[in-house]
Amino acid sequence: MGSRRQIEQWIAAGRIAVRGNTAKLGDRARPGDEILLDNKPLRVAAPAAQPRVLLYHKPIGEMVTRSDPEGRPTVFSRLPAGRWIAVGRLDINTSGLLLFTDSGALANALMHPRYEIEREYAVRVHGALSAGDLEKLRSGLHLDDGRAAFERITPADERGQPDAANRWYRVVLREGRKREVRRLFEALGKQVSRLIRVRYGLLELPRDLPAGEWRELSARVVQGLLPT
Known about the structure:
The chain is of the alpha+beta class. It folds into 2 domains: 4-41, Structural Genomics Hypothetical 15.5 Kd Protein In mrcA-pckA Intergenic Region, Chain A (Roll); 53-222, Pseudouridine synthase. Helices cover 18% and strands 29% of the residues. The chain is built from 5 helices and 15 strands. The strands form 3 sheets. Strands 5, 6, 7, 8, 11, 12, 13, 14 and 15 form a 9-stranded mixed beta sheet that branches. Strands 2-1-3-4 form a 4-stranded antiparallel beta sheet, with no helix packed on it. Strand 13 (192-200) and strand 14 (203-204) form a beta hairpin. The longest helix is centred in the first third of the chain and has 9 residues, at 4-12.
């Protein structure tokens, strides 16, 4: 019927009524409510069903595919009934947070580069990084598919006492290129021995969600994920 701004102007001018009362900014209409514009009823389409979203704690060894020719286990075998779409991927040796939704539009929005949604990982690296290494990872390195860099990288030793062989780091990216975290470290000659996705956008991997199990987000939380 009009843009959001136009309709707000109609409401301010008293041209819209809901359930027989002149509407005010902030009023809510429920499905089935009569809505009038200049005393004429409007045909309002029923709202689309809100998407469902699952948080899944992917263990090492599972494939993000519906079936694997080699017969390896897949993440979809553990999900409830439904047509679920994976939001991005994690390789077989990466564990942590993986999102699923029944909405293709929402999946595309959560993965689209224009939204620059942060992905955060805990990374265990064989050997410590120098200050120069950290600077290179922040400023960018050339990979076979173009230049790449971490948005942020910080030491993270909260997982236990560090040793001379392995160190933990927290890294943040705003894109989902294939094996990007591993390839950035490999470009410095460093080997990643453990990789865990701990956050996707505003959603964190729950500490009490065991590997191989899922949890459905509430309608309120899903509403906050929808693109505006």
